[in-house]
């Protein structure tokens, strides 16, 4: 796959095409690789703190992975749908892709029991589907200024709803796990039978908190439009760095009265994660597409161009492996994934937390091998 596919140009010249930006594929791939890493530790009981989610308020690097991906969805929309306002059938294609993503996520929740009475309805792919649908339609029907107004309306409106509106059955507004307004929506609309089982009565990818998640996608769209402008590359990067710093600072300030919280996807969390994503993409764009420093980039590009495929299969395959039981010498049975981890990955490590990390890294490296082969063969599975 040649460099020309990405429209790479001499140093100092912006190097994007309408559909491909090497730094964007790199940033997406880095995000997906991190997602695979944190979702597949060797042992869930032994995980380094930065690879876990914050218990409630606050954030860890792991909490930034999903919003980074939604931000990238927003950026990608501006390249994929540039000029799409004049094309017939584009809305139908958007709806079809959104339904496909939602059904893939629902399938992961169904598998392997396929019990409709207790299946979790929301999920990561489901939220991606909804954010993609909403942001794509907003992009097609509004200007950048109008998108900024919608972003502000979503963030301010969500903040007021969560901190001012009394929660039915509780009697006052609050941000506690089981009694906040977003949790109430989940209980009423989804019922406790169809939410995230560890949370029991609410869902971290629930209905109401998807609204500010759309704001994360809009931040990505505004960033994508800026990168598509005709301004000099150095000016675009400088202003994007400045904007990223300001947005991040705004999120930290808002944290003082609307805490950063990934599970609630608070407005302060949208700004913090969005600002940091802007900084990450600005750095990637400057180094890769402008300065043409591409050493070590292509492995992550391989993840990036098949992002949904690797996320879906990296969730499905371990579940299939756990259905295949292997009997150990002592007579106990283990799922094949657990068996391989205990007998081949963990033994060389004295510290169980390092063994757990090694298990996650092994999983990522296996996927790298698969995706690198697909990349070299130009196999891109589009959803």
TrEMBL record:
Membrane-crossing segments per the record: 64-82, 94-112, 124-141, 148-167, 206-227, 239-257, 263-288, 295-317, 353-375
Q: Where is the Heparan-alpha-glucosaminide N-acetyltransferase catalytic domain?
A: 20-235
Q: Does the keyword Membrane apply?
A: yes
What's the short name of a Pfam family annotated to this entry? HGSNAT_cat
| InterPro entries reported in the protein's UniProt record | HGSNAT_cat
Question: Does the record bear Lyase in its keywords?
Answer: no
What are the record keywords, sorted? Membrane, Transmembrane, Transmembrane helix
Provide the protein name.
DUF5009 domain-containing protein
Q: Which organism is it from?
A: Spirosoma pollinicola
